[in-house]
Amino acid sequence: MLVTRISLQRVLEEVIEANLDLAESALLTAIAQGNMTAVIFYLKTKGRSRGYFERSGFLDKDDKPADEPRYVVVLPDNGRGPPQIPTNPDATETRAPAPGDLRSVA
Q1: Which parts of 33-105 fold into alpha helices (H)?
Q2: Segments of 10-102 assigned E as strands
Q3: Does a structural domain hold residue 83?
Q4: In total, how many domains does the chain have?
Q5: Helices and strands: H and E segment counts in the chain
Q6: Residue 69 to residue 60: CA distance in whole angstroms
């Protein structure tokens, strides 16, 4: 009985290996034909050492896991707020930021 189980186990392993070879061949054929789904799958699974991977969850500014997303929304000045006070008293320009002015928020 033990010999039969070992023989069956070997046959099963050979079938699994043959199926894996077939799947790999089909995947590489799909990649060669420009199938983007196949390309993305291959890069996510085999291209990790080159930086291709999918992140799950949220990351902070230092690429460390965070509990929740952080969003910074920068709105252009609509001209309805109080006048801005210059930080430098000697500054000659006292205009509010134009709608195209973007500022980085830390």
Answers
A1: 36-46
A2: 58-59, 65-66
A3: no
A4: 1
A5: 2, 2
A6: 8
Cα Rg of the chain (Å, integer): 29
Highest mean pLDDT, choosing among 19-23, 38-42, 67-71: 19-23
Q: Looking at the domain assignment, is residue 7 inside a domain? A: yes
Q: What is the pLDDT of residue 32?
A: 96
Q: What is the pLDDT of residues 24-68, one digit of tens each?
A: 999 999 999 999 999 999 988 888 778 777 766 666 667 666 766
Length of the chain in residues, anyone?
106
Distance separating the N- and C-terminal Cα atoms of the chain: 70
Q: Is residue 74 in some structural domain?
A: no
CA separation, residue 104 to residues 51, 78, 93 (Å): 27, 18, 20
What is the domain range of residue 41? 2-56
